[in-house]
Design a protein that fits this description.
Elements (H helix, E strand, L loop, with lengths): L5 H13 L2 H8 L3 H15 L4 E4 L2 E4 L1 H28 L4 E8 L6 H11 L3 E8 L1 H9 L5 E4 L8 E14 L21 E5 L4 H12 L5 E6 L2 H9 L5 E4 L4 H5 L13 E10 L6 H22 L36 H4 L22
Parallel strand pairs: 3-4, 3-5, 7-8
Antiparallel strand pairs: 1-2, 5-10, 6-9, 6-10
Helix pairs in contact: 1-2, 1-3, 1-4, 2-3
Amino acid sequence: MKNITLRQLRVFVAAARHLNFGKAAKDLHLTPPAISMQIRDLELQVGLPLFERSGKSVSLTMTGEYLLVYARRMLSTLKDAEDALARFRGLESGRLTIGMVSTAKYFVPRLLKLFREEHPHIEARLVVGNREQLVAQMQRNALDLAIMGRPPREIATRAEPFAAHPLGIVCAPDHPLMFGEQSPASALANYGFIIRESGSGTRTAMEEYLREYRVEVRTEMELASNETIKQAVMSGMGISFLSLHSIGMELRASMIGVPDLEGLPLVRRWHVVNTSSKMLSPSAEAFRYFVLEHGEAYLAREFGSMQPLGSQAAHADLVLPGRVSPAAVEPVAAPPPISAAELARPVPPAAPAVPFRRAKPAARS
């Protein structure tokens, strides 16, 4: 095994992660034949097969599973060495791997764009997954930083809150919950739910809310995609519990509603997280500081009244632009683009929390 190369190990780890040579090729910007050739050469070096092949599907052999543990450990050690040496080079360049829960994809890429305006030579890679998947990747030292709502307890981490994170019930604009006064939490038992998959932070928050108010709901569908859930909700297939940061576009376009419900919105916190044992590279430290300094201001400007600020973050009393019909509510304009210079301006103190309000619905025929 003395002639095994780092390139072969990287290809092997990617192929083991996807269990698909085509996806591994796309991930590494190679062709599928190049992946197959690297795996074949590695198997010749090892002297044993690493994958069992059955048509287009592959699975790891026992030998492959053992090698994967050591391959990940070697690549992780190499990354730590690169980060340590990067401190001598300064912040002009570097590589940064950021993990984010799927709900954070609605703002992290734009926040990263602003960061790269200040540091154009830093190469960044975004990894999207649910909370459980990100924790597993942090355990393997595969991420520099992670953006998530609920910090992991499974491993030792440094988790720093940087902004409020409102979650709540979403439904079609003409759903019965959008009419009348505030509904009790018990009213949710009357409607079918489209829920996130197990392991999702959004799913955990929903279960905590329902448990607190002792409500049992009927599950119509379980999906792993916020986008698919929103489409199902807008079509009237059911209601859901989502991060309100994931529905900004639909609210502005008057395509989705946020009903007035007891105990909602549920306000949690966004965190920037890294493992305690990991020495951050200069590029990772710079992005961490950028998020802590500018994250809340960015979300406030991007999501407007949906985003709790200051004292409001401790309450669930938010003004949300719920909509019931085109005649009833004037659509909210999309916010203008934000520059890095604008983020540097101080955010004015938040107004006192006010009761949740919803536009008066048009009369139903």
